[in-house]
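Sequence in, structure out. Go.
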Amino acid sequence: MGTIVCQTCNSTIGHFEDEKVTTLYGQCNECDTDETEE
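Output:
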């Protein structure tokens, strides 16, 4: 079981199937839209 965590706000975005416990960092929709708006 893997977990996807937002690297900006540290909220859990989702989970994915994996053989070992893994944490991946990405961006959630809220942080992604905040940073791309100019």
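Check: The chain has a mean pLDDT of 85. Residues 2-29 form one domain.
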